[in-house]
Amino acid sequence: MFNNATEGIIITEDKGSIVLVNPAAERMFGYTAGEILGSQIEVFLPAAAAIHHRALRDEFYQHPSNREMGHNRDLFGQRKDGSLLPVEISLSHYRIAEKLYVIAFIIDITGRKQIEANMLRQQAEMEKISIEVKQLNAELEAKVEERTLILKEALEKLEHSQTELNESLQAEKQLSEIKSRFVSMASHEFRTPLSTVLSSASLLSRYRAADEQDKRDRHIEKIKGSVKHLNDILEDFLSLGRLDEGKVRTEKHRFDLQQVVTDTVEEMHVMLKPDQRIDLQYNAPLEIVTDPKLLKNMLINLLSNAIKFSPAEAVVEVRVFPSGEFVRIEIEDHGIGIPEADQSRLFSSFFRGANVTNIQGTGLGLQIVKRYADLMGARVHMKSVLNEGSIFTIDIPIVV
């Protein structure tokens, strides 16, 4: 991810020296890593900005926090050839062996600035045309109606063009927000299992005696669990990538729905917490026509969430029954629920509820479920009450 990220990523130690630069940052600023490793971070700043930046950097190292730089003002970096580069920068930090490291995530916003410049140019053209309208009205009173019609059409075109530019700018800002959420999520979700793998691997070497096998086994299981978590994260990324590229195709055919639901529920038993159980109630047609593979993936995602966000000894209820022209599958848990303010954005990419930030997850599962449902012609609904639980519903068309 570090090497293939489209954003520039630069890591410095607590004295401001550069320790890592990814390829995107090298291309962005025109340096090779060998030229700048060990240099101060100010090598990427214009001379005037670099003078003030040292004091700001020292203050940040004293009180580090995850934040954006330059709020409400333009930031510029300086390339190796001396040219300036408009950028957005987000800062994060972490510690290894009590030593502070700072990560700068850098986005080249040249395209956005060009869009803004085009908008200003369009606005200037509109103002110019307005002046021309007044002049023409004064000079050509006999042709007022004709000229007004012509200029009105021109204004409509310019307004339409400005609307398109506004939409493009908004789309670019939304993409930037999604990227920022992805970077924050990835840095958090990867750090925890990687730290577990590192610490367990280090501790394994201490247990060499034959009677310490149970301790070795315990750390091996921790490593396996962390690797599985990393694999699950990558599977979510790959699934979303295939959906975005249009590589996921539905393969609808007639199959035994009860068998698929029952098998999926049985497979999820390995994830149950102590004394948790899944209660399946099936009262629907045995056979339907849809894509069984996509449906099973949807059920696994929703059941995993129900188990993960429910306490030990809780019951997860699965109900399957006819509902008009659909077969309805309801998955109900009695867990932590979802805050009302977060419910409208729950199916967005990389979005997670405010009350689950301390629980592992990528924020992609429900987005993938929604995308699969759209491909299948199905519908997904959700009802939730904070601290009481949630009900997720899949409505699958009955195809005869």
Please provide a written account of the structure.
Helix 5 (144-204) runs antiparallel to helix 6, helix 6 (213-244) crosses helix 9 (365-376) and helix 7 packs parallel to helix 8. Strands 1, 2, 3, 4, 5 and 6 form a six-stranded antiparallel sheet that branches. The chain has a five-stranded mixed sheet with strand order 8-10-11-13-12, covered by helices on one side. A two-stranded antiparallel ribbon has the order 7-9. Strand 1 and strand 2 form a beta hairpin. The chain folds into three domains: 8-108, PAS domain (Beta-Lactamase, 2-Layer Sandwich); 112-247, Helix Hairpins (Orthogonal Bundle), CATH 1.10.287.130; 253-397, 2-Layer Sandwich (Heat Shock Protein 90), CATH 3.30.565.10. The radius of gyration is 28 Å and the shape is flat. The mean pLDDT is 82. The protein contains nine helices and 13 strands. The longest helix is centred in the middle third of the chain and has 61 residues, at 144-204. The chain has 400 residues and is of the alpha+beta class.
